Amino acid sequence: MYRDPEAASPGAPTRDVLLVSAIITVSLSVTVVLCGLCHWCQRKLGKRYKNSLETVGTPDSGRGRSEKKAIKLPAGGKAVSTAPVPGQTPHDESDRRTEPHSSVSDLVNSLTSEMLMLSPGSEEDEAHEGCSRENLGRIQFSVGYNFQESTLTVKIMKAQELPAKDFSGTSDPFVKIYLLPDKKHKLETKVKRKNLNPHWNETFLFEGFPYEKVVQRVLYLQVLDYDRFSRNDPIGEVSIPLNKVDLTQMQTFWKDLKPCSDGSGSRGELLLSLCYNPSANSIIVNIIKARNLKAMDIGGTSDPYVKVWLMYKDKRVEKKKTVTMKRNLNPIFNESFAFDIPTEKLRETTIIITVMDKDRLSRNDVIGKIYLSWKSGPGEVKHWKDMIARPRQPVAQWHQLKA
């Protein structure tokens, strides 16, 4: 509504002016309060976060561990945490009535809880622990005993999150089943091609086994990666004493795979150089020497030689090998091999280096392998990229042999 300014008495504020002044005053007050609260929140949150950093990892700080236990409850259980956030005091109804900023306090406590959930010692700490040991996947199986037929039944169901053992980023897993200490009579599942989450659903019977002997055995499962051209690569193993299992009915288990006992320990290192010539479309691989190779023979030594495979996509294109060095765990080879590789095929190319132990009376044993390509491990990828970055120059690097 329009009002004539001359109609008002001079010096007397109008009602509209008073109303506007009141609105401005209230707005400024709210802004100041909110700004003060924001700084207060930041100080409180910063203090809580600092305290969480100081307490994580100390013997009295069990917060991260209690959360992990809740996460790892058996199937069907609910991971519900009722423990209060450290440093947070519970409020009753009288506190809420007398506290002037209860809603703000609740908000701060909520934010503090979220920050503590993300602070070191919870998820990040758990992830760090997971990285500290290699994840080999897990396997599901069932076991039970038929007293009338004196038969032990073992059913291999499936596995999950198996590691990739092949250069193509996958594996061809199968399972061997033993009743230790007897290793002569073993049973095997079928091979599941290119599958890191295989389903077998195969049943195996150990017939004619008296119960008194069954409870003296250890069920041993070994998961391997099938390799048609060389020794099968071990992935992981599980062992369970049968005297600790209720065999009166089929019991189902999920077990994490552990490193295979025959694949543990250092396998040694190999020094080799790569030289890429883009104009000649070739790579020269020089096998220089090895050190601290794993002893594969009874006499505490090995007869090593090196195989070099050129792979393109999933196909083996060409193979070459060094001479055999008799009874030598630190052999010097100094042998070079040239492979023709067009530049446009370089990204799909892999060079597999396999150190073998020669055996005249049985199959040659694999001491260790190295995969060189764009998509191998960090050390191998670094060597490959250094080779590309320095054409026509031999680039040498030590590599740890792997199973």
From TrEMBL:
Listed PANTHER family: SYNAPTOTAGMIN (PTHR10024), SYNAPTOTAGMIN-7 (PTHR10024:SF344)
UniProtKB keywords: Calcium, Calmodulin-binding, Cell membrane, Cell projection, Cytoplasmic vesicle, Exocytosis, Lipoprotein, Lysosome, Membrane, Metal-binding, Palmitate, Peroxisome, Phosphoprotein, Repeat, Synapse, Transmembrane, Transmembrane helix
Compositionally biased intervals (Basic and acidic residues): 90-100
UniProt name for this protein: Synaptotagmin-7
Entry's family note: Belongs to the synaptotagmin family.
Record InterPro entries: C2_dom (IPR000008), C2_domain_sf (IPR035892), C2A_Synaptotagmin-7 (IPR037732), C2B_Synaptotagmin-7 (IPR037741), Synaptotagmin (IPR001565)
Record-level GO BP terms: calcium ion regulated lysosome exocytosis; calcium ion-regulated exocytosis of neurotransmitter; plasma membrane repair; positive regulation of transport; regulation of calcium ion-dependent exocytosis; regulation of endocytosis; regulation of insulin secretion; vesicle fusion
Record field: transmembrane: 20-41
Entry membrane topology: Single-pass membrane protein
CDD domains xrefs: C2A_Synaptotagmin-7 (cd08386), C2B_Synaptotagmin-7 (cd08405)
Span of domain C2: 135-255, 266-399
Cellular compartments per GO CC: axon; lysosomal membrane; peroxisomal membrane; phagocytic vesicle membrane; presynaptic membrane; synaptic vesicle membrane
Predominant location category: membrane
Start and end residues of each stretch annotated as Disordered: 53-106
GO molecular function: calcium ion binding; calcium-dependent phospholipid binding; calmodulin binding; clathrin binding; phosphatidylserine binding; SNARE binding
Subcellular location: Cytoplasmic vesicle, Phagosome membrane; Cytoplasmic vesicle, Secretory vesicle, Synaptic vesicle membrane; Lysosome membrane; Peroxisome membrane
Subunit structure: Homodimer. Can also form heterodimers with SYT6, SYT9 and SYT10. Interacts with calmodulin (CALM1, CALM2 or CALM3). Interacts with CD63; required for localization to lysosomes. Interacts with APP.
